[in-house]
């Protein structure tokens, strides 16, 4: 059975693992606990939800309908944005929680791509950057998978995903989905160590095998 909150942050008092219940607000009234409950609400809301009928442009030049990816598993890792060569990072990028780490995250999925495929899952990256920029990034980082552009935030808004603003750009918070048969099977959020996200995803896949798993390429 999937864990409702796949991270290492301690659960606040008043929460029992594996059960959905309201927090004891007298015991969970500090800011860190409030943020944790907000995060748990996001993940519990999304797990089990249908994948929205949204088509996004891919770096391969085709359009991908996320609701029609086949019966097998698909990993979608969402990230705010990767840096553009020769251009400065957005204002205060280093102090925005969760902003840094997009390139290490992409490289981790590149390095574990064969293992994830062997575990029966396809991989896509997703950000709000343009396809043209993403295509350059795919070549530069030697990514063996496609990256999707949610430039209009169609996917993000359909699922009411958490976003933040940086230099006027609305960006998706870092989170990873595991989809299966048009349903969100697992969500990783927050991702505090982007460079370990692919390994954590692979660990979850290994712990939750599908008998005779055969993923269908999109």
Q: Can you walk through the features of this model?
A:
There is one protein chain. By secondary structure, this protein is an alpha+beta fold. It has a single domain, classed as 3-Layer(aba) Sandwich (Glutaredoxin), CATH 3.40.30.10. 27% of the residues lie in helices and 20% in strands. The protein has 6 helices and 9 strands; from the N terminus they run H-E-E-E-H-H-E-H-E-H-E-E-E-E-H. The chain has helices at residues 31-46, 102-111, 113-118, 131-141, 154-158, 197-207, and strands at 55-58, 63-65, 73-78, 121-127, 146-149, 163-166, 169-172, 175-180, 183-188. The strands form 2 sheets. A 7-stranded mixed β-sheet has the order 2-1-5-4-3-8-9. A two-stranded antiparallel ribbon has the order 6-7. The protein is globular, with a radius of gyration of 17 Å.
Brief overview, please?
With 218 residues, the protein is α+β, with helices and mostly antiparallel strands. It has 6 helices and 9 strands, in the order αβββααβαβαββββα. The strands form 2 sheets. A 7-stranded mixed sheet has the order 2-1-5-4-3-8-9.
* Integer tally of domains: 1
**Kindly, what is the distance between the CA atoms of the first and last residues, rounded to a whole number of angstroms?**
26 Å
CATH fold label: Glutaredoxin
CATH class wording: Alpha Beta
Helical run tally = 6
Q: Report the portion of residues in β strands.
A: 15-25%
The major pleated sheet works out as: 7 strands, mixed
Fraction of residues in helix: 25-40%
Kindly report the average pLDDT value.
84
Number of strands: 9
Q: What spatial form do the alpha-carbon principal axes imply? A: globular
CA gyration radius, whole angstroms: 17 Å
Say which CATH homologous superfamily is assigned: Glutaredoxin
**Pairing-aware structural class of the strands and helices?**
alpha+beta
Widest sheet: strand order?
2-1-5-4-3-8-9
CATH architecture: 3-Layer(aba) Sandwich
What is the N-to-C order of secondary-structure elements (H for helix, E for strand)? HEEEHHEHEHEEEEH
Stretches with pLDDT under 50, minimum 5 residues? 1-34, 212-218
